[in-house]
């Protein structure tokens, strides 16, 4: 009968069939087998019973089954193994027909049902599990590859379970309390599919101090994933030959410093060789002193056997950091001292550091898309760095809340530093400070720096360095923004005479802005070698300058002079009266490429007035070609800057009313300037005492095409302080420092102001520059 599966043994729960109330055999008794929960003595309820032979074959037998004198069931007088194919009820009777036992269901389960249950979608619940890691260490495996299920890492947590596989000879393994579990006999249980690990596997719970678990995870040498949890830890070390730690996002996955703990939250030791950190945050508590985010051990221990292909005594060790957020620490967000690590970052965000955001002192690193803001000291320090590149950096709010001056970016004692695309904004003191270094910057934006210092600090400071800046934006927003955010900062300061600085591409809007206020650009005088936009410093220029002498004219043709204010650096300046029609007539004419003129004017007025700062051409009329800049005060005290244009029988007036804040003061010292070329025109007025500037610029189609006729004849004259004609309106007050030259853009004019607020715009384009210090 090979077509049956008889696997349920007919037996008592005890070994022998004994009496119910005395410990002796049910001699000559009988056994009845029936359906579950029925009376098996009733033939209708009985099921088939088999004797199982030694060869596994089965023979059906009739009921009742006889019990011998020793208490064993027998078949034909021989002790036999009786089986059925299913669970059943059992009744046992003695030789006198009295029932000794009745079991409604001898097995409590049906084998076929159990097979169905174990094969169902939730059949796993019928399988036993090891309760925890501690118990797993006590279980001795029998064969290589044997598997066991771990319910949880630590009893009572329900976390960190998984599958483990046995290795009998575990001599090459070290117990790490998560992936490798070693038994007392030297075998190991290896966690299955643990190429990537998480803190739960090492006993972390995600609620309290998980330092020990996270440290074990970092030491296991496998790729570690933080998941979407917040972990609390302190003083973690990356000390394996390689380590990969990643999360699910900057603000989704994070490790928080345990309150009160000091020192770095994460330290990269010299034992490491290859490190990858990505997509998580490191958070301090924002109050504990002596904390930092990431610290890399300094020094160079020389060759290390755990680094691939290491044969050099100055082995490089590599760290890659991508999309990591560091915030809320005291000393430093990121400390990268002189070391043999080569650190590459992309998307490193550092914020709210009480002292320094990041400090770099090593060589051969590349940082991309860096943002550091709200630091009590510097946002970024490069000290002793070299052969390095920073591409895309935004540094904001350095020196925040600190009375000691700190710059946004400080570079010192560093060589071959290359920076591309950097913004320094809202720093309390200097924006950029470079000392004893060689630096190349491509794309620099500085705005609203020196916010806490009342004109004392600068966007850029250079000391004993060689620097090239290509592309420099320093508008400080005020020229075009909706807000009067006028920077307190000067632009450039050079300390000493041993710096060489080349700045190319300073940007000014030169658009028809509704806002008239421009940025402040004050520098301290310097003998350093500074070239901006190819413009040389007039005061250190060694080439031969063109400097034609104009003719003084007026009702009385003898010039008079008055004392000059000390800010102009000379004793005298030209006296100007409207009654005498004082003016300077230049022999140079306007070229077809345009012209730029600038002069210092101290206007004197008590009420309504009109003054002509300068005139290009023959005078404003439909029959003439001209461009005239006038300062007008009406009877109500409203001040206006008017540009009067005429040409080819057409006239055009461009006016800009000044607000009370922008208005000029009688007796104030101002630098007036205008540049114009075919299709473009800009004007500017600087308060020399404060550096505050108002400005406006126009391009076609705002400018009538007829205006271009002034450039065509080659005969258009240039006149300062009035027009060329006897009856033209003149100025009242005093004047000096008149510059006339070829056309310079507003960008070049902005650059020239860094040499001085009333210096020549471009010595190479100069026709004439007259200080009027007692002589024309």
TrEMBL record:
Coiled-coil parts of chain: none
Pfam families xrefs: Head_binding
InterPro entries according to UniProt: P22_tailspike_N (IPR009093), P22_tailspike_N_sf (IPR036730), Pectin_lyas_fold (IPR012334)
Domain (Bacteriophage P22 tailspike N-terminal): residue spans on this chain: 1-113
Protein's name in the database: Effector protein
Species annotation: Salmonella enterica
């Amino acid at each position: 009968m090979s077509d049956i599966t008889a696997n349920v043994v007919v037996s008592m729960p005890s070994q022998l069939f004994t009496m119910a109330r005395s410990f002796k055999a049910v001699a000559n008794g009988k056994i009845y087998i029936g359906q579950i929960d029925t009376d098996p003595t009733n033939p209708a309820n009985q099921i088939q019973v088999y004797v199982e032979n030694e060869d596994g074959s089965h023979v059906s037998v009739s009921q009742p089954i006889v019990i011998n004198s020793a208490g064993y069931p027998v078949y034909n007088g021989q002790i036999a193994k009786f089986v059925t194919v299913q669970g059943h009820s059992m009744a046992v009777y003695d030789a006198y027909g009295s029932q000794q036992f009745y079991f409604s269901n001898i097995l409590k389960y049906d084998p076929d049902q159990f097979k169905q249950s174990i094969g169902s979608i939730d059949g796993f619940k019928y399988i036993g599990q090891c309760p925890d890691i501690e118990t797993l260490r006590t279980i001795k495996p029998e064969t290589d590859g044997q598997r066991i299920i771990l319910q949880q890492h630590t009893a009572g947590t329900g976390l960190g379970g998984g599958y483990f596989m046995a290795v009998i000879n575990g001599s090459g393994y070290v117990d790490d309390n998560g992936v490798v579990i070693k038994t007392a006999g030297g075998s190991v249980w290896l966690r299955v599919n643990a190429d990537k690990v998480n803190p739960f596997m090492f006993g972390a719970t995600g609620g309290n101090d998980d330092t020990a678990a996270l440290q074990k995870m970092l030491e296991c040498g496998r790729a570690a994933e933080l998941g979407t949890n917040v972990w609390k830890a302190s003083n973690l070390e990356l000390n394996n030959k390689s380590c990969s730690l990643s999360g699910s996002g900057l603000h989704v996955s994070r490790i928080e410093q345990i309150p009160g703990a000091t020192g770095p939250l994460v330290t990269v030791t010299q034992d490491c060789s290859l490190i990858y950190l990505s997509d998580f945050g490191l958070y301090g508590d924002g109050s504990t002193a002596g904390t930092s985010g990431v610290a890399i051990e300094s020094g160079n221990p020389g060759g290390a056997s755990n680094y691939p292909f290491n044969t050099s005594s100055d082995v490089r060790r590599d760290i890659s950091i991508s999309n990591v957020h560091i915030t809320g620490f005291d000393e430093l967000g990121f400390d990268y001292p002189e070391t043999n690590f080569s650190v590459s970052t992309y998307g490193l965000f550092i914020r709210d550091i009480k002292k320094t955001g990041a400090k770099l002192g090593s060589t051969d690193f590349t940082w991309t898309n860096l943002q550091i803001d709200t630091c009590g000291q510097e946002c970024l320090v490069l000290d002793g760095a070299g052969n390095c590149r920073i591409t895309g950096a935004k540094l904001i709010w350095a020196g925040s809340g600190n009375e000691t001056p700190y710059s946004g970016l400080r570079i010192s004692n560093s060589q071959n530093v290359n920076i591309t695309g950097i913004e320094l904004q809202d720093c309390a003191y200097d924006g950029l400070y470079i000392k004893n270094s060689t630096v190349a910057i491509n794309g620099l934006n500085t705005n609203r720096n020196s916010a806490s210092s009342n004109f004392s600090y600068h966007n850029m400071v250079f000391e004993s360095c060689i620097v090239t800046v290509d592309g420099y934006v320093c508008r400080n927003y005020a020229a075009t923004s909706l807000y009067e955010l006028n920077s307190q900062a000067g632009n450039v300061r050079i300390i000493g005479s041993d710096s060489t600085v080349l700045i190319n591409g300073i940007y000014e809007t030169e658009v028809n802005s509704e806002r008239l206020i421009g940025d402040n650009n004050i520098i301290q005088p310097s003998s350093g070698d500074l070239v901006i936009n190819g413009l040389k410093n007039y005061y250190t220029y060694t080439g031969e300058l063109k400097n034609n002498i104009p003719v003084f004219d007026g009702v009385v043709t003898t010039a008079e002079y008055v004392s000059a204010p000390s800010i102009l650096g000379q004793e005298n300046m030209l006296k100007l009266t409207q009654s005498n029609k004082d003016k300077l007539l230049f022999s140079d004419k306007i070229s077809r490429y345009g012209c730029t003129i600038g002069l210092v004017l101290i206007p004197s007025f008590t009420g309504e007035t009109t003054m002509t700062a300068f005139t290009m051409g023959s005078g404003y009329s439909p029959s003439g070609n001209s461009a005239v800049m006038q300062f007008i005060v009406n009877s109500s005290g409203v001040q206006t800057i008017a540009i009067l244009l005429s040409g080819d029988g057409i006239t055009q007036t461009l006016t800009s009313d000044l607000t009370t804040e922008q208005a000029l003061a009688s007796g104030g010292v101002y630098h007036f300037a205008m540049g114009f070329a075919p299709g473009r025109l800009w004007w500017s007025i600087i308060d020399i005492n404060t550096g505050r500037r108002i400005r406006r610029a126009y391009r076609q189609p705002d400018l009538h095409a007829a205006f271009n006729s002034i450039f065509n004849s080659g005969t258009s004259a240039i006149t300062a302080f009035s027009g060329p004609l006897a009856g033209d309106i003149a100025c009242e007050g005093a004047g000096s420092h008149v510059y006339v030259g070829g056309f310079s853009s507003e960008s070049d004019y902005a650059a020239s102001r860094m040499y001085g607020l009333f210096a020549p715009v471009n010595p190479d384009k100069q026709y004439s520059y007259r200080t009027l210090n007692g002589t024309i």
